[in-house]
Q: What sequence folds into this?
């Protein structure tokens, strides 16, 4: 297996809930009004540190789309999908964009809650 190179993003980010790997910038959110089988989802212009599953034809609420599941490249968690082709003219704006499931991501402010704040050996006073 090859080496994994993780892209570190500057600014406020959305991260993988499982491993905290950066996935997208908050500035790249196009819409927070998407739904998926796990609940809310956000549409992004770009995503990083993801790998792709095979293209699949899916009938969604907004019509037929060709999509590919996307996974965190570090831990392998399914985090959403990418719109490859939108077959309905009104849905063409989605092509090339990414949907991240809100249940699978945390924003950089929430990520601080997952940080281990227990003192390490170097934080304790000498006895």
A:
């Amino acid at each position: 297996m090859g080496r994994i190179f993780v892209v570190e993003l500057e600014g406020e980010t959305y991260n993988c809930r499982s491993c905290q790997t950066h996935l997208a910038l908050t500035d790249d959110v196009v819409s927070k009004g998407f739904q998926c089988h796990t609940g809310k989802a956000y549409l992004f212009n770009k995503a990083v540190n993801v790998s792709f599953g095979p293209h699949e034809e899916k009938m969604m609420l907004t019509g037929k789309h060709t999509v590919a599941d996307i996974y965190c490249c570090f831990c392998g968690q399914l985090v959403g999908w990418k719109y490859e082709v939108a077959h309905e003219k009104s849905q063409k704006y989605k092509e090339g964009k990414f949907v991240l499931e809100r249940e699978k991501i945390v924003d950089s402010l929430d990520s601080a809650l997952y940080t281990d704040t227990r003192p390490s050996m170097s934080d304790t006073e000498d006895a």
